[in-house]
Amino acid sequence: MSGVILTINTMLVILVAWVGLAFAQNENMVLIPAAEFQMGSKAAEDETLHTVHLSAFYIDKFEVTQEQFETIMNNNPSGFSGKNLPVEQVTWYEARDYCKAVGKRLPTEAEWERAARGGTHTIYFWGDAIDEDYAWYWDNSERRSHPVGSRKPNAFGLHDMTGNVWEWVADYYVDDYYRTSPKENPAGPFTSKYRVIRGGSWRDLPDFLRTTRRNYDLPAGRFNHIGFRCAKSAK
After folding, report:
1. CA distances from 230 to 54, 62, 93, 170 (A)
2. Between 219 and which of 28, 103, 195, 203 could a Cys-Cys bridge form, CB atoms 3.0 to 4.6 Å apart?
3. Side-chain half-sphere exposure of 128, counting CA atoms within 13 A
4. From 3.90.1580.10, 3.65.10.10, 2.40.10.500, 3.10.180.10, which CATH number describes the 2-233 domain?
């Protein structure tokens, strides 16, 4: 009987250790449950409203900071200086490589929008009127980025999904992709000259902060208003 108890106790120790490890790996990430949602809007030609079903995934609670990036990549390309500021002037390739180095990846555009919406259908994740408590943008940013997490989060607990810096995502950009994209876990077009950025930044007016707003840039470009966050699949 004592051997059975010992085995059970050992299994409990292993389980607690495994849970602790999983928490340590994901403590700064948020689990976004599998769901079907309406992606896009009627606000722009490249935002065709369509239905998407996504598997569960994790996404970073905050934009990647300069301190985090420098620790892993041994450099800091940012134009603004501060360990808790979002890293910027980072290319799409560098963002991809950072995420890979920490066991993650860039989110797809569909994952990013699902996470940013926080289950809402409004212009912004907090409502239909701009509210500076939730985002750094042209009117309140003093023309610079700010420490991550210093604005209110969305319903998923994610900070700076709107404003502060645009965020690179995994997808290539094609303006009519939404019209033909698959319903299940769309991963973006096969190729293009540009990569998608989402979320708006400290230098943008309110229209660029719409949750559904799409934008793009050259993947090798460096801009002080573009950063990123990472994601990973839930298994």
Report:
1. 17, 9, 13, 10
2. 195
3. 3
4. 3.90.1580.10
Say if strands 166-172 and 226-227 run parallel, antiparallel, or are unpaired.
parallel
Span 156-162, mean pLDDT?
98
pTM of the model: 0.89
**What's the Rg (C-alpha) of the chain?**
19
Structure tokens at 178: 């939404």
Domain boundaries, the chain: 2-233
By the 8 A CB rule, do 218 and 193 touch?
yes
Cα–Cα–Cα angle for 57, 58, 64, rounded to 5 degrees: 140
Cβ contact 218:88 at 8 Å = no
pLDDT of residue 144: 98
pLDDT in tens, 32-41: 999 999 999 9
Residue 198's DSSP bridge partners are 167, 214
The two tokens of residue 159 are: 């900070």
DSSP 79: S
Q: Taking a C-beta distance cutoff of 8 angstroms, is the pair 64, 87 a contact?
A: yes
Residue type at position 53: H
Structure tokens at 119: 């289950």
